[in-house]
């Protein structure tokens, strides 16, 4: 058994289809005139652009808009005039078109790979994809789709975006990649297509050979190679249990989320882009409890304009209306870098210049976002949420800036509808002061991802200590209970939008302490609703007496 990173839930049992990185033999010499070589190059780029247009169209029809944008980005890279000029200079030295193209694109790949920035490293993968595409054209290699056996599990270094789209959906039951993480293209596409996937397996992937029988468990991140019969039987059972439980959940689609005691709970979805709204609607989510707006600021060269942001917020609000949409003001910093802001490298980015701290210093940036949000309020039920709040002063300051934007817009004659203002409770200082902060806002949403790391002093990104990063810490259980109580005493709603809100074993505790809203990744919504609708409140006295993480975990999992 080998392990990787779980990228997309579910179990696949099938036959390995190993895609080896092809070595394309490039010959430097050419007998052609410079002008003929340049014409050959221009023709190859034109064919490449056409192929990318076709792929974009196909992806748009079969996968989605944001995935299709990958090919638009490839096209822009391929048509880049600076790169084109460098290729021309190489060709003028009397070399073949393939050689000129390879030497220029390799230079860019090496440069992108060496940057200390995940986004640029991802772009290096895009360039590799483009390189293979164009070299195949220049070297006359047939690029037709590979033939797969039924029940194929693709095993590859990294499934490039174009390979992903060219997959035969009927036959591909899962995939395994050597590199990549939870946010790589392949992982995102796997989740969108609902194909189990394990990524980032590392060098051990070499132990998988063409035609091996494989079991991959995308929920656990494990792969079995030529497993014994009893393991196959066990996973066949697990697979059918998984499928049966998925189809049982269908009964909860379009149902109200209401406990057996009659309390209505908002079971909402988290999104990071306009396109993600569809997944929340498909799962019949009761609203959006977290729109991570900072993703509008990423993967681009400069800040999004007020108009761009307005369009995004308006679309999300309109699509969800009359269901509520919580849009969090941008949370850049920590693990989410933004090169064009020119922020300095910090020793402790999670304790540094991040989220509301940036907004309160760079008020122009903040105002642009707030104006876009307020203008969008006319199109649905908007809740504005400030992240990383650690003190009352920050709320007051943020609300003053919001009021100034509000007044400006009114004097410009812009229509603004009713909206709510809330904060994330993700810093222990805010959790402890919740009774005071509750007087200033309409709602709280507990951000467990950060609240756990700050409460237990465990960096959420550090693999070495990931075993210490635990939602089962008794301190965390006590802290979130006190936040809910403080909010309720002051009459405001308390929700949760961190990952814990979607942990099935945790949901009964969250309901017992009185949470009003749970917001999670859209694929967990039906499961969460099934738990809510079968829940009746119980005392939490026993669990709060437990002293260790293990005791808490065992108790939550036993119930
Ligand atoms: C959280 O901290 O729980 C949260 C939802 O925010 P993020 O994961 O974006 O920091
Ligand atoms: Mg957070």
Named once each, the bound ligands are: phosphoenolpyruvate, magnesium ion
Structural shape: globular
Which radius of gyration do the C-alpha atoms yield?
Answer: 26 Å
Largest sheet: 8 strands, mixed
Main β-sheet, spatial strand arrangement: 1-8-7-3-4-5-6-2
The residue fraction in helices comes out at: 40-55%
| Total helical segments | 21
Number of domains: 3
**Distance N terminus to C terminus?**
30 Å
Mean pLDDT: 90
- State the fourth-level CATH superfamily of the largest domain: Phosphoenolpyruvate-binding domains
The CATH class assignment of the largest domain is Alpha Beta
DSSP strand tally: 16
Q: What structural category do the secondary elements indicate?
A: alpha/beta
Q: Low-confidence stretches at least 5 residues in length (pLDDT < 50)? A: none
